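Continuing the batch. This is chain 6 of the set; chains 1 through 5 are on the previous pages. Same settings as before, nothing changed between runs. Recording input and output for traceability.
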Amino acid sequence: MEPRDLDKVARGELKTLSKENADWVAKHLVMAGRLIDEDPEEAHKHALSAGRRAGRIGVVRETIAITAYTVGDYAMALRELRTYRRISGRDDHLPLMVDSERGLERPERALELGRSVDVATLDVPVRVQLAIAMSGARLDLGQPDAALRELEIPQLDRKKAFSYSPALFDAYATVLDDLGRESEGDEWRALSERASAALDALAGGDDLETVEIVEEELEVDLDDEWIDVEGVTAEVAADDEDPGDADGPAGDEQATDGVVDSPSDDEDAADEHAEEDHGDDEHGDDEQPHDEQADDRG
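Output for chain 6:
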């Protein structure tokens, strides 16, 4: 494992650190990325270790937030995502913030947060993720009809599939089931499976031309009764290309060690505390890590 294994954009964010420190942080970020699926607890330890020396770096706070969410620490995830948002000025993790509010059993706040941003300013995949999160919050409140409306966005197009479509189709099927419309739910679930298979084949099938995706989304045609992978006509659609003109059922749409003490779920003061950048003043580049075991793993 080498520091250069880290994504180029992320490495660029570490240039404000000394080379030795940047390399140390980069290795922990690489390990967090490699372990997040198979061992999320260990991935989270690596993210926290990176945060001890680079608490003011956006990608570090982002990584801590994502790993915290993965291990179910929604209070930490929410606070770190707010800090990442302030550092980066980006709303690309708004859906994860909404889901973190849901994890804290605050669906009303989740909905309020989701409505705080104009969805037109978000990239299309983020809009879809947000719609799914908002729909989940509606289900949490026992509002299945409203949950369905949250998902009836232009991207819910049964004729075409983008990389975000399987998750959207599955979410739609789940709400239909909740409404007692199981046969319709089964149809959308089948569409999700077909879309996943076609997208996987298009991205890595031996019989298809290799497509390099740089902030782009694969699109496949689902018009046929079933998909013949070798016969799929595919095109690449940019993230900011809104497929809303298609005939779809459009509706009326990573804190550091000491810094990340989870706020109380029951107190409103916790949210106010979360709005403070609680860790930046405690984590200068020269601060030594406390988790020596995780550090050795880096």
